[in-house]
Write the structure tokens for this entry.
Amino acid sequence: MRHSTFRVALCLALAITGMTAAHAADAPGADAVPGTRQTENASLQAFIKANPDCLEFTDQCSHCAVVNGVAECSTAEIACIKRENHCTRRIAD
């Protein structure tokens, strides 16, 4: 009886340890860089500046509209291949 109790306790301890390690792997660490979003914002602003007559544009993943000089974009689609931004609607259209 004691042998099976020890075995159950050992299995529970290993399961808890595994869950803790898996949870820690999901948490952002010190090496997680928030610069990706800043880079995306800078490239959007650069596109808007280079194309002042563009009202809407897309990179085939997100669709964006320029409102008061700022890009408001949809959430990226799940399965997409990101490409360069290209204008889909201009002021003259």
Observations:
- Helices lie at 2-26, 35-50.
